[in-house]
Fold these 2 entries.
Entry 1:
Amino acid sequence: MTGTRTLLDKLWAAHEILQREDGASLLWVDRHLVHEGSHHAFGKLAARGASVAEPDLTFAVIDHYAPTRGRDRIADPKVKYMVETLRKNAHSHGLRLFDLKDPGQGIVHVVGPEQGLTLPGLLINCGDSHTSTHGAFGALAFGIGATEVAHVLATQTIWQKKPAAMRIRIEGKLGPGVSAKDIALNWIARLGADGAQGHAIEYAGSAVRTLSMEGRMTLCNLSIEGGARFGLIAPDETTYAYLQGRPQAPQGADWEAARAHWAELNTDDKAVFDKDILLNAEDIAPTVTWGTSPEQAIPVTATIPDPNTLTNGKAQGARDALDYMGLSAGRPIEGTPVDQVFIGSCTNGRIEDLRHAAAVLAGRKAKVAGLVSPGSALVKAQAEEEGLDRIFVDAGLEWADAGCSMCVGMNGDLVAPGQRCASSTNRNFRGRQGPGALTHLMSPAMVAAAAVTGTITDVRPLLEGRAT
Amino acid sequence: MSGWSQHQGHVVALPIHNVDTDQLIPSRFMSTPRSEGYGRFLLHDLRRDAHGETHADFPLNRHGHASILVTGRNFGSGSSREAAVYALVDAGIRAVFAPSFGDIFAGNAINNGLLPARINEEEMNLLFQGLADTALAAEVCLEKRHLQIGDQRIGFDLDPGWRTKLINGWDDIDLTLSHRDEIDRHAQELKQRAPWIRPAQITKNS
């Protein structure tokens, strides 16, 4: 050991089977997660007459098209076709399927960790860009396209060039009402939506150490919104406490052996990163997006920027975004009326996210309509045990089943054209939540605050005197 | 997939940064079987108004025969949907020139014979100005890594491994299976060294 290796170096070396002349590595894949969108990949496999190389390491989840209401009869033929195609593929290849009625069903990036399929030190692939989520456990996890999904299905390996190493350290203590979502939107606004392209980001620093696993998953999940295919956090006691006893996590002597191995999964003191960024947690305010890229984000207390003051070719994009969003430069973002709210997604659909939102909504009424879709059936059950569902329903929001839902709208949960939605999701792209939909990204607590006032609102005053 | 090393066609400018894959193909079209063709979905909501009428001044509407795009930074960012590449390829696009690409998109492009060619911002701006809203005859040469428009020649960056793959039209699965022994060795060694790495309960519902 040279004492200069990053966590990325260690994970990469452990999975590298060989390296090609051009520098691409052939990597072993420990877990492969597939969903309805993987139909192109299964089609490619069928075209070759190939079978799944490691069915025991391949898990199928219905999430992107999962209806959040009325699961017994799927009305939309497209949705039905996608769900049934995955069922057929999972069945014919002998894959464990988390079907619509399975108590473990949910969004693939919520299901993997809560089932203990996601573990430190593993390489995890999924045909979904938010696979970076699993890096919160110290796993090498990255999203892949359909041709690569077919490749992993057929060979249980993936070709990949090692990314450059980047570290984002967040030191200090986050203020009340400020969460991992705000850290993520903050760094993406500073560095840009392509600021981490070609890099794997390791998140470190005291503010990261004090985050729960839910918060760490939110942070790693959003790595791709800043261009990074990988997010990483070294495992620690918080990680182990989350994993111990999960159905697919090692047990007994295996657990002890795994723990001993996981203790090595960290960056050496003398390691050097290609990019090293330091943020002060105290400087981070609740953050919201005003435009159509996650980099177009500002503190809720700020005014919407004037495109003419933007450099680096960003002025025209900002003008287009303001035009699409129906907003004016120089106006405060706070007070912008919203038509509806959404709480859920692989970014912010976990139990802690629902607790944060419920802490704001308890005893209050929403001024606008809204949908709450928990990240999984287990999150749903836990929330109901804690009475969070009553808080949402009493506030006037709809409490639904688990899935990707209104983050991407594939199941029909759409924001109508011209409607403005305060959303705990990951992408404010044009039309992401439906054609003509206007999306403002923010934390679940901030979404709850928007529900209470009917406008984009600083959540902090609403939390005063409340336990959070 | 068949390889290629030269392409002659027409180049147009799409002077927008951050064209994400949700723009390249909105998610509502993604349950379509590939055999039906994805070309009509390309940039669907930017090319058409809410009633489905095409915007006459949109570059790809004005020049439907274009096969080479010059566009802004961070092209293909966002979702890993390979359908974004299918939409480009099925619409006849063979090469995209931009200062940067989404990492997942660029890999998907190579896997479908689409060239993601990196140029610098200065060259991008010159091309935007030079092309304005016209389409010009152009030639892409993979061997020499350049785009030729009239007597103007612009070099581009491309990972050498990716260039080889595009030229040969290689299928990764065939290449990988030629390393089957090394893969098996790795898998066996892993099972012995760290048996806990496999899922604790392998329960199947089939």
Entry 2:
Amino acid sequence: MIGDIEAWLFETLVQPAIFELGLMAYIEDAFTWTQFALWGVIQIAVIYLVCRPLEAWRPVEPRADGAAIRTDVIYTLLQRLGVLPLLFFVLFTPLSAWFDGLLRDAGYVPRTIDQWVPALAGMPLVTFLIYALVLDFAEYWRHRLQHGLNWWWALHSLHHDQRQMTLWSDNRNHVLDDVTQAMWMGAVAQLIGVEPGTFPLLVLLFGLVESLSHANARIAFGRFGDRILVSPRFHREHHAIAFRPGEPARACNFAALFPLWDMLFGTARFDGRFAATGVEGRTTPEAIGRGWLMQQWLGFGRFLRALVPARGADRTEGGRQHEGA
Amino acid sequence: MRIARHAALAAALLIQGLIAAPAQAGLAIVLNSGEDTYSLIDTDTYKEIGKKPVGREPHHLMLTPDKRDLLIGNAVGNDLVFVNPATGDVIKRLDQIADPYQLGFTPDRKWFVTAALRLDRVDVYDAKAIGERKLTLVHRIPIKTMPSHLAFAADSRRVFVTLQDAGSAAAIDIVDGKILWQAKVGPDVAGLWLAPKGDKLLIAVMGSDHLAVVDTKDGKVLDKIVTGKGTHQLYEDKGRGLLYVTARVDNTIAAVDTTTFKVTRVYKVGPGPDCMEIFRGGKELWYTARWAKRVEVLDLESGKVIKKIPVGRSPHGIHLHPDAKTASR
């Protein structure tokens, strides 16, 4: 069914456009991106149909800032419909090919999970779960570094700026942060041998859970469930870490899918609260930035200042380097 | 005496049939380039009977010169996989074959050549140990950009290659590893075919609607044959003296006379036709429909698509056993 829609879209719209633009050498890449965009539409529809009723049913806080939410919608569309990933693909494909050629010439061929354990070739669900676990583990450590390194926190704090967190807030990131995530996830996926056909399903899983975990919904999965899968309550606790005046900051709840990693590495916090979110000291729309472009600009400025701080300036501007991360 | 001869012949046929039966079940192997697998199709029932993981981005496949093994090139996996063409079972994996997007043996079987579309180079391997499933790299020839399809001269000395993104073609001296000439042909060139006399190449111009007729001496374009928008791949039907030429945008397959270079018939087919094979004594043309995730079967007499066989994502290379003589290139 999805394949038929994809083929129709590609034949009717994409391929004629590519032909007229004189880009037929890249027609197979265009086919891949048609799939990405279609999955993005499906993903957004599913997320909206699942999360929006939950937000309406049990909101944590009133939807007071419509403009901030609309900006987050733009972030989501740019990311999940493939606009930003396409840009990264165009920029990094030659670099990736060069690096790949270099590795092969040096005699290095990374082994994939199914090469290590051939029996997994016939167990797609188990393989899928292993891929999700490994990618989530990698994401856990990337996230810890985002909070632990000053320059990275300068970028990532844009994500934490949102004081009106909703299902649309997951993709609220600086483009440089998106680049690092794409490279990180792409490299790990390649190293463990994730098949191209499986990758969109993994992206769909991450997208679903992460959108839900950002939802403005008073939802938890219970004492046991909150330890199995990241819930809105679990992740809201993470977003509260940068915004808790008068309380010691503590880095916690970094996992995207499985709280297991936080429990293993001592960063899990199950307080049972639905706390306020944001970054301490950034309370006005001017400090946070109005609209996508301004937020990107402010984030880039913070990033440069973190890399080259003025004499006597606080390197941890835009929040702080958190304990334990 | 005559009865005895007939009985002996019948017995021989029976024995031959019994021995050959398991391997002659009719197997098509199709590379699903978009999901790193290959599909096995029962050619009698026209149904997919299995799917196996193979490696990253398998695009093309071909028989070894002794027809014992089927070679699958994993372009992103940078390896070659040896497969039993009768059963579809993997025999061996040969690592360190960089980006074998397109592959081919010289007519004298001495050299194995790959076009590395992603890495912009053509690699030449010594193929004398191919019987032991081994290859030795001899030349690595950088060439820009996107080398995609190969055709070999009868003297086994030269290989012609299309350069997809550069819109040009080149001739390479296989023994010396040197580029002899490189010339512009048209936008986004793809498949090519060398005329039996060796004087002309027909090159598919995918960014346009035709085959370019090219002089093999210097790459000069002599003429063009209009076949359809997105002209992409060629396959020779020696029995009929025809070339079948796919057009990806128009979704057609044109039949071109190999002597007169005239289009004799145009078939309307499924989305994104690509690699082809003739089957059942030339009655059927099997081809991969890239955008529709299927293999389609065209009845060449009636001109009708008689079967649509669902396979994996972006099916590319196809090989048919036992009737098929060569893998689609």
